Amino acid sequence: MKKVFIILLISLICFSVFSQARRPTIMVVPSDQYCISNGYSMEFESMGRTQTLPDYTAAMQNDPDLRMVITKMGEIMANRGFPLKDLEMELRNMQREAAEIAMLASSSSGSQVAETPIDVLKRTAGADIILDLSFDIRRQGPHRYITFNLRGLDAYTSKQVAGAAGSGAPSSSATPELLLEEAVLSHMDGFNAGLMRHFEDMFENGREVNVMVRVWDNWYDGDLETYFDFDGEEKELLEHIEDWFFDNTVQGRFSLADASHTLMRLEQVRIPMMRVDNRGRERAVDTRGFVSDLRRHLRQNLGIDSQIYMRGLGEAWLIVGER
Amino acid sequence: MKVSPRILLFMLIMFAFSEIACSQARHSRSDRRAHYSSSYNYEVEITGVGSDGTKTMKVWGYGRRVEDAIIQAKMNAVASVIFRGIPAGHGAAATPAILRDPNAGEKHADYFDEFFSASGKYINFINLTTDGMPSGQDRLRMSRPRGYKVAIYAQVMYDNLRRQLEADGIARRLDHGF
Hints:
The complex is a heterodimer.
Chain A: H1 2-18, E1 26-30, H2 32-37, E2 41-46, E3 49-54, H3 56-62, H4 64-79, H5 87-103, H6 117-122, E4 129-140, E5 143-154, E6 160-167, H7 176-205, E7 207-215, E8 227-230, E9 233-236, H8 237-248, E10 255-259, E11 263-271, E12 274-276, E13 282-284, H9 287-302, E14 306-310, E15 315-320
Parallel strand pairs in A: 1-4, 7-15
Antiparallel strand pairs in A: 2-3, 4-5, 5-6, 7-11, 8-9, 10-11, 12-13, 14-15
Helix pairs in contact in A: 4-7
Chain B: H1 5-24, H2 29-37, E1 44-48, E2 55-63, H3 66-84, H4 104-107, H5 109-115, E3 126-128, E4 139-142, E5 147-156, H6 158-167
Antiparallel strand pairs in B: 1-2, 2-5, 3-5, 4-5
């Protein structure tokens, strides 16, 4: 009995020590303003209007200053335990992946890899936190100085979670490369302090995500305003879902930004970082895992099927009506 | 002797003025000593962007002798980046404090007593960039209490210091919990 107790205690300690939350991916991306003002852009016609979009591949291939700044930032972030996702490699991987999928065929039947239009659309470079970067080498008489602007943007909530901006000291002798390195060194500690605040807030109040509930067009049995009976209470489906969010978010924190009979847009949903699964293991929670619980609740208690559509670590859609 | 009412009124007004002026900033010698030796009294100014992982600053210290003031200045340099951070200046952005908790000093009092002791770890993280005794405007002689206020130019090994505090469990790593 004593042995069993000790083993149980050790395994509990192991779970609590080694279980870790899901680490957000971070990638430096030159801002639209930087790309377009430096000529790294492409134009195309859409609905009769000319749109100008940044050309990241051209920027990475032709701008040594940009590469130098990204490398320096990557080095600092790796030292802090957060290696950055590299934009250039990501773009290259995407091109190779597309070519491989087009060429891949089954050896027995010659069948190609199944890919829906959504899979193709989702094949874009992305990260959970985007470091939106722009800088400019300016002149003031014989002196040169750097203006630097770095914003940490949560890709799902579109909130700025950290930032650093300012101008360096003017110098007539330092090379632009040296001034750029100085700008990165000068701003990264302040930027990382902002990032740290964001992570501490996440562990204290839960990860902030967005959830959208939608309805399949061919669900004839009802919509989000149809009454369902659960736990002796007859309420609209929308209200049952709201109740579930209240019970399962950290401190009941979420806001229903928009609601109709076909749509619920839930923002600032604070989901727990960790949870214990059915086998007693403590596991990291992402939006998919969180929304899966809602899906299970709807299936088991209200008899409604649904499907989850993932939009990354921080956003998921639940489409109710059928799988 | 008869004093005219006009002179009496003038003297009264002068007395009232002198009382108001003197009552505003009169600190005793012990008050001033407490101010100089306070662990919260850092006078630090960043002097530029340091090389990778370092911060360069001008920092002041107080002491009965110049040597004591230099030692206090070194401690102040390290303490300022741990507890308070350094405001921006001379082209360098503001440096955030390594410990974000405003009460971290009190919470880990035993650790920091040892850290800032005579042979404590703090000295590992200082690269003194001025050699010899400070002079001129960087060496001020005080009369009450008797002593010196001196400034040194120091380079603090910021990244090494942060890593040390993380390893000792005082500061949290950026990837803590992930």
